[in-house]
């Protein structure tokens, strides 16, 4: 895709975001992961019901090329894989999702990651596919009349490409199958790897809104400079910085806005609140009102919804 088309997409999405600025968006991070095991259909449904604007799946690829909703490359932290497939770990003692077919992955039950959250001994849920999440979202949109979007993350794209999977192409095919195409599609594709986003835009013809994630690691410092933001604005419609990036330099938000980029920091959690804030509500008020973010990734959708409603 040439630069002119990229700029047109940016303008189209930016104009939509002028409206969105009045409506801060709630991105349900791994679903309502503060309440139910992350990335399960139950967690996504709960976040939907709590008022999320977007449901966020991290993506992984199975051995047979199916996109599943999973944060880690490996399965042992959030499933019972060690019990079901005790002999399938690699030499490093870890069970990689890409080594299992979807049929095998569906034999697993999901285990809550955090000992502070949903009971870890309770085994009620399966790993969801991206397609199942989309069908859930679109089904709920049909029954409620709302228009909740999705916010998929291409996680570890280099790992999956080296494993022989066309990760980005698989995502674009699935999005097209369900109508998520064009600059107005109710989707943001997010990734930490600039080259993956640039390839989506320039080589694969992706015309959906893209978000450049920016970690707190020094290797991504260049992305928050003026030059870095200029470069991002040539292929993306937003940035998803670690919260600390904004706290360290609140001008990041206005500098991104000046380039037509929305700002969606990650991650707000009621049970992990930095000492400087009295509560998650307090933290959110600072980010929404003082820093003027456009939305954020949140484990507790209901709390962010309440804070936003109070601010209006
Ligand atoms: O995608 C934004 C945020 O979720 C990035 O962190 O590790 O939770 O995917 P992570
Ligand atoms: Ca993510």
Q: Strand arrangement, largest sheet?
A: 5-2-1-11
The dominant shape is globular
Q: What is the terminal-to-terminal distance? A: 39 Å
Helix content: 25-40%
Cofactors, ions and other ligands in the entry? SN-glycerol-3-phosphate, calcium ion
Mean pLDDT: 94
CATH fold type: TIM Barrel
The percent range for strand residues is 5-15%
The poorly predicted ranges are 1-21
How many helical stretches? 13
> What structural class do helix, strand and pairing data support?
alpha/beta
CATH class: Alpha Beta
The total domain count is 1
Question: Which descriptors would you attach to this protein?
Answer:
binds calcium ion, binds SN-glycerol-3-phosphate, 312 residues, 4-stranded parallel sheet, 13 helices, TIM Barrel, alpha/beta
């Amino acid at each position: 895709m040439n630069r002119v088309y990229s700029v047109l997409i940016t303008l189209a999405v930016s104009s939509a975001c002028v409206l969105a600025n009045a409506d801060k968006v709630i991105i349900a991070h791994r679903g309502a992961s503060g309440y139910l095991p992350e990335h399960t259909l139950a967690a996504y449904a709960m976040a939907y019901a709590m008022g999320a604007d977007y449901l966020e799946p991290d993506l992984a690829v199975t051995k047979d090329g199916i996109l599943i909703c999973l944060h880690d490359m490996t399965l042992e932290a959030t499933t019972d894989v060690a019990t079901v497939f005790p002999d399938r770990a690699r030499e490093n003692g870890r069970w990689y999702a890409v080594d299992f077919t979807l049929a095998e992955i569906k034999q697993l039950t999901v285990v809550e990651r955090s000992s502070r959250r949903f009971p870890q001994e309770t085994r009620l849920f399966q790993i969801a596919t991206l397609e199942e999440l989309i069908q859930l979202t679109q089904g709920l949109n049909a029954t409620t009349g709302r228009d909740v979007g999705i916010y998929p993350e291409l996680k570890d794209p280099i790992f999956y490409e080296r494993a022989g999977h066309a990760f980005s192409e698989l995502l674009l095919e699935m999005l097209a199958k369900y109508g998520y195409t064009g600059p107005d599609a109710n989707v943001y594709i997010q990734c930490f790897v600039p080259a993956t986003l640039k390839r989506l835009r320039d080589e694969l013809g992706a015309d959906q809104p893209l978000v450049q994630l920016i970690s707190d690691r020094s290797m991504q410092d260049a992305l928050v400079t003026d030059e870095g933001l200029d470069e991002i604005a040539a292929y993306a419609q937003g940035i998803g910085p670690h919260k600390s990036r904004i706290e360290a330099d609140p001008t990041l938000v206005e500098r991104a806005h000046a380039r037509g980029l929305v700002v969606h920091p990650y991650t707000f959690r009621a049970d992990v609140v930095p000492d400087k804030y009295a509560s998650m509500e307090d933290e959110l008020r600072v980010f929404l009102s003082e820093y003027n973010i456009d939305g954020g990734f949140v484990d507790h959708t209901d709390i962010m919804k309440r804070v936003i409603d109070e601010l209006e």
